[in-house]
From TrEMBL:
Gene from which this protein is expressed: ATXN10
Record-annotated Ataxin-10 domain positions: 370-409
Record's protein name: Ataxin-10
Annotated organism of origin: Sus scrofa
Classification via InterPro entries: ARM-like, ARM-type_fold, Ataxin-10/CTR86_families, Ataxin-10_domain
Location(s) in or outside the cell: Midbody
Keyword Nucleus: no
Keywords carried by this UniProt record: Cell cycle, Cell division
Keyword Cell division applies: yes
Family membership: Belongs to the ataxin-10 family.
GO biological process, one term: cell division
Annotated function: May play a role in the regulation of cytokinesis. May play a role in signaling by stimulating protein glycosylation. Induces neuritogenesis by activating the Ras-MAP kinase pathway and is necessary for the survival of cerebellar neurons. Does not appear to play a major role in ciliogenesis.
One GO CC term on file: midbody
Length: 490
């Protein structure tokens, strides 16, 4: 007489086979664990059985890694592995009891080892990719809101799993591995990341290639940008394309809807030092764009993005003061504007007068945008800072700015936005330079005539129906100047 069959196990009122041996049983469990009440009442013995199937099936993958010809015989094993991961993934959803039970069986170590074997196979079978993705989803779920599981995942996965997955050609694998990294990171583990910069750079590269993916974005904004040491080390090792991606996210953080917190300010002051230093050292790279056959375009684009970041940083009152006194920054900005303006005399140059800054319309030309942001940065650095205002005059910066700008017929367009006219009642200490567009009021404006030695400036200003004043620290008052360059700067 045959031995009696073991009675089926009961899971929240649903009958499931006691010996989980086949694909159908695993699929039944996966479906059951979609319900919270089933997850909360699952016996630990079920997870041991699932782990046994996972270990047994993984041997076929190990064999295929040693003997590539065996890859063609992996289909059945990959199906079982996929369903094991799905079952474990579902069991961990918002259930710390199951997370702890599965972790204590050393399932995390088995899963990580198996995922690393998947990477070694390097085959494009869809069944392999599905198993790969489900394994990463399981690791993400078991680590979610569970510090003990996060420690174990980090111990097994760092750094090999992240190095293997963050640059994978499959977008979902990159996204899921980014989810695991985001979930597992902490301030203590960030220090380990500083010693493995390739992982951090891979995250930035993942964001550059997949800007729509949420996890790389969150890793950078919520973790990386809170570590000045990491950002500085990354920036030195990055390609120019990766630098642009990182700087874009820095802008997003500064200009986002949520203002910088009290804790953020010291961190971003460190970022400001890095950005300002890099700009002062490398800003002339943008002049590569003036060559007949431009070279170094990527370096020039990184320089342009550094300027964009500086504009946003100087629009933040917590960061402005530090940058206003940063050694050599204002001088370098004025010097660069002068070089670009001179390069514009060549009609074939990207900085030619046909791209001069206008008061109306959107900035669509890269060079035009760069010139406008140089002037914007000069205005910000001079905001309520008489020393910088005087420095601009001493460096002949005001006629240079005027000569770089087209003035609209309305008389109070783009230029008045960044270089606010000084009223007779306002003192230079109160700030004659503005950081944001302000309307010109009805008070009397101060102008001074420009010598006839500057015809290009006079030619642009003459004939306008409504004069636009550039703030002058010195000079006589006139009602209708032929030119609007202050005498104090020539």
């Amino acid at each position: 007489m045959a031995a009696p069959r073991p009675p089926p196990a009961r899971l929240s009122g649903v009958m499931v086979p006691a010996p989980i041996q086949d694909l159908e049983a695993l699929r039944a469990l996966t479906a059951l664990f979609k319900e919270q009440r089933n997850r909360e009442t699952a016996p630990r013995t079920i997870f041991q059985r699932v782990l046994d199937i996972l270990k047994k099936s993984s041997r076929a993958v190990e064999l295929a890694c040693r003997e590539p010809a065996q890859v063609d015989h992996l289909a059945a094993s990959l199906q079982l592995i996929t369903e094991c991961f799905r079952c474990l993934r579902n069991a961990c959803i918002e259930c710390s009891v199951n997370q702890n039970s599965i972790r204590n069986l050393d399932t995390i170590g088995v899963a990580v080892d198996l995922i690393l074997l998947f990477r070694e196979l390097r085959v494009e079978q869809e069944s392999l990719l599905t198993a790969f993705r489900c394994g990463l989803q399981f690791l993400g779920n078991i680590a979610s809101r569970n510090e003990a599981s996060q420690r174990v995942v980090w111990m097994h996965a760092f750094p090999e799993l992240f190095l293997s997955c963050l640059n994978h050609p499959d977008k979902k694998i990159v996204a899921y591995s980014s989810m695991i990294l985001f979930t597992s990171l902490s301030s203590e583990r960030m220090k380990e990341l500083e010693e493995n910069l390739n992982i951090a750079i891979d995250v930035v590269e993942a964001h550059r290639k997949q800007p729509e993916s949420e996890w790389p974005f969150l890793i950078i904004t919520d973790h990386f940008l809170k570590s000045p040491e990491l950002v500085k080390a990354m920036y030195a090792k990055m390609s120019n394309q990766e630098r642009v991606a990182l700087l874009d996210l820095t802008i997003a953080k500064i200009a986002g809807e949520e203002p910088l917190t009290k804790d953020d300010v010291p961190v971003f002051l460190s970022h400001a030092e890095l950005v300002a230093s890099a700009f002062v050292d490398q800003c002339r790279a943008v002049l590569h764009l003036t060559a007949e056959q431009p070279t170094g375009d990527e370096e020039a684009l990184a320089t342009i993005r550094l300027l964009d970041v500086l504009c946003e940083m100087t629009a933040n009152t917590d960061l402005l003061g530090y940058l206003q006194v940063f050694p050599g920054l204002l001088e370098r900005v004025i010097d660069l504007l002068r070089l670009i303006h001179a390069a514009g005399s060549d009609t074939t140059s990207i900085f030619s007068p046909c791209a001069s800054i206008k008061a109306e319309g959107d900035i669509t030309n890269v060079a035009e945008g760069f010139k406008s942001h140089l002037i914007r940065l000069i205005g910000n650095l001079c905001y309520k800072n008489k020393e910088n205002q005087d420095k601009v005059s001493e460096l002949d910066g005001i006629p240079l700015i005027l000569d770089s700008c087209g003035i609209d017929d309305g008389g109070s367009g783009w230029l008045s936005g960044w270089l606010v006219p000084e009223t007779e009642a306002a003192s230079s200490e109160s700030g004659s330079w503005g950081r944001a567009p302000q309307p010109v009021q009805g008070s009397e404006l101060r102008f001074s005539r420009c010598p006839s030695a500057r015809p290009s400036c006079a030619g642009r200003a003459r004939g306008r129906r409504s004069p636009l004043a550039l703030c002058s620290l010195h000079g006589a008052k006139v009602t209708r100047p032929d030119c609007m360059c202050p005498s104090g700067s020539v």
